Please model this.
Amino acid sequence: MNPLSRKLRNNYWHLLCHRQEIKDSGDFIRFDWLGEEVVVFNDNGSVIAFNNLCPHRGARIFLRDFGNQPFLCSYHGWSYKNGHLSVPQSQFSSTTDFSSVTLNLLETDWCGDFLFASISPKFSLASQLSEVTPLVEAISHSIFERYDFNRYDYDCNFTIAVENALEPLHVPFVHSSSLGLLKLEHDTDTFSGVNSACYFSIGDTRTRKHLLSLKKYFSTDFQYEGYMSVYLFPFTMLSSTFGYSYSLQSFFPAHDDKTTHFTSRLLTSNLSKLSNINIIEPLFQSTSKINRQVFDEDHLICKRVPLASWSVEPPPLVTRFEERIVHFRRSCKSELMIEG
Model:
């Protein structure tokens, strides 16, 4: 197992989902990271994150990526509800003590309506998010529901996938018929501890005018009238065009250093009236389709970059569009220099 991947997974908080994705009892979402699985589950209103294994004999509980079902192990009938494990009494004597048997729970915390989880965080969520906290919280309060769920493996190390998402230099070449059509004009980069964000104006006049005309159909706590991409170190991206929807992307490392477990969700923003969905539906459909195309294009180009090409040192030639990559590598290098 790559030492950097292990330390980043174990010691940091990770944005796993939005409250609307797990709003009903029995709702769950499953993720892969470093050869293990973690599940977020709504246990009758209490949201937990845990290692996806039954504590009895280690059978996987949830097999699908997401859905709604009771917590029930299909191997021996163990179940979990209201914070307690239930075991078929016929399997053990009435005097058997189960008090020490429990799920392998992760620590959880909320930033607004976004749920974060960690195995053994070395600092608080607020400390990790630093000055980006108000932005993440405002975005979370603007979300209405999940519209699309997309998941597959990238054939590259997570560092390659993350760095691809951090820089806009590749957009005209890799995304000429998708994201490139916006003709993004780089405005500024911001840095907040180990996190960063970049902001772009929409250079295509016709597209910008159309997006502005849709503003009256939405009611959001936050909106950036352009394209923005927020990176939450180490594995998460939040991106949006005009704040009408948000793409939540996870680049979790695999046990194999040549693979990244990629998951994206399209989260739609609050409408000023629910009836506006009839007008806005084509926008969400188009955004979902384009996002999938963009991520497929990213995957194809990332496959070309072997892990041997990556280093914690800055690239030999750094443009002003790659400052976030330098920042990312510096953060990774600092983590590797910490003992343990």
About this structure: Residues 110 and 116 are 6 Å apart (CA to CA). DSSP finds eight helices and 16 strands in the chain. The longest helix spans residues 277-302. The helical segments are 3-11, 125-129, 133-141, 158-166, 171-174, 205-213, 277-302, 323-337.
